[in-house]
Write a structure and sequence with these properties.
This protein is of the alpha/beta class. The protein has a single domain, classed as Rossmann fold (3-Layer(aba) Sandwich). The chain has an eight-stranded mixed sheet with strand order 3-2-1-4-5-6-7-8, sandwiched between helices. Helix 6 links the parallel strand 5 and strand 6. Helix 2 packs parallel to helix 3, helix 4 packs parallel to helix 5 and helix 5 runs parallel beside helix 6. The longest helix is centred in the middle third of the chain and has 27 residues. The radius of gyration is 18 Å and the shape is globular.
Length: 331
């Protein structure tokens, strides 16, 4: 694995792995203006990928990123696909459009869209709690629908295809509540516990996907915590005081202490640094050899709590996810 440190920038990662980007096809969800996904897209453009597809609910949020890609490198084909992760009909329709636009060949899928600690209990079109829906379930469905294109690209080589699920250190807050993922219809809803459940599910999905695709070996899967940053829109509805509840809620739910950082990780990353770990997950060939894996602070680490990686949880989360999307996936 290439040597990066706590101060590594997204631009440095792209420069290091330019050969892993040139001529390849990238699909990114939720890459709106002032987002981690938007930063990933504009940084990738510097190294001349063949095609960047941004799948997002609202075109207006994506237009500034599409324009930035054009400014950085006019030779890059950049496409918007309308896709609402909270609406499974929209996910299926969007997946068909992505497959058509890519010729059923995707080198890297980065699941970046998300929400965090929604103040009020909300459900999606299917009746699934909204944080679980957008962060995990919609991505679970989309990724599985795109697996044929990932397998095709990976088999064509010379590099394996990658799936990157951008999660959060918030996975420590709560395991997946398999018996009550909707919090009794909102009666027991807690914004941070629900966020923790969704972030845990993303990591478990990563392990489950990689295990199922291990035999062909053409698709690698990673989950990563990009770091905390105050410049993106993700937590713009939260006050600093809201974050003070996290350690208390984590202790109540799991009996464990919440770790805001690991090792020498800074409490906050700059906007120039925030996409570095996702890009390493997507591009570093040494990381590919260790799939599935969780990355934080630009390196592979073990998740801090067992509920985010145990084989039993991986199996239960996959089963629950299939039930929520109403479809089984076999590879």
């Amino acid at each position: 694995m290439a040597e990066f440190d706590k101060d590594t920038t997204s631009a440095q990662v792209v420069a290091k792995f330019a050969s892993q980007i040139k001529g390849r096809v990238f699909v990114i969800t939720g890459a709106g203006h002032h987002s981690i996904g938007g930063s990933i897209a504009t940084e990738l453009a510097k190294a001349s990928p063949a095609h960047i597809i941004i799948a997002s609910r609202t075109r207006a949020n994506v237009d500034p990123v599409l324009n930035a890609i054009c400014d950085v490198n006019p030779s890059v084909l950049a496409t918007y696909v309308q896709l609402d992760l909270s609406d499974h009909d929209s996910v299926r329709s969007g997946a068909r459009l992505i497959l058509a636009a890519t010729g059923c060949k995707i080198d890297v899928l980065i699941n970046s869209a998300g929400n965090m600690a929604l103040k009020e209990y909300t459900v999606d079109k299917q009746g699934i709690e909204m944080q679980m829906s957008v962060n995990h379930v919609g991505h679970f469905l989309l990724t599985n629908l795109l697996v044929p294109a990932l397998l095709k690209a990976g088999a064509a080589g010379p590099h394996a295809a990658h799936v990157v699920n951008i999660t959060s250190a918030g996975y420590q807050i709560s395991p997946v509540r398999y018996d009550d993922p909707t919090f009794s219809g909102g009666k027991t809803y807690d914004p941070w516990t629900t966020y923790g459940q969704a972030k845990t599910a993303q990591i478990l999905f990563t392990y489950g996907l990689a295990n199922r695709l291990q035999s062909p070996g053409h698709v690698k899967a990673f989950a990563c915590h990009p770091g905390s940053n105050l410049d993106t829109k993700l937590g713009s509805h939260l006050a600093v005081e809201d974050y003070e509840d996290v350690p208390v809620i984590t202790k109540r739910n799991t009996g464990q202490e919440f770790l805001f950082t690991m090792g020498d990780e800074p409490r906050f990353k700059t906007y120039e640094q925030i996409a570095a770990t996702p890009l390493i997950s997507a591009l570093d060939p040494d990381v590919a050899e260790r799939s599935p894996a969780y990355l934080q602070n630009n390196k592979i680490v073990q998740p801090a709590v067992e509920h985010a990686y145990s084989a039993a949880d991986v199996a239960k989360c996959w089963k629950l996810s299939e039930e929520l999307v109403g479809q089984r996936f076999e590879y």
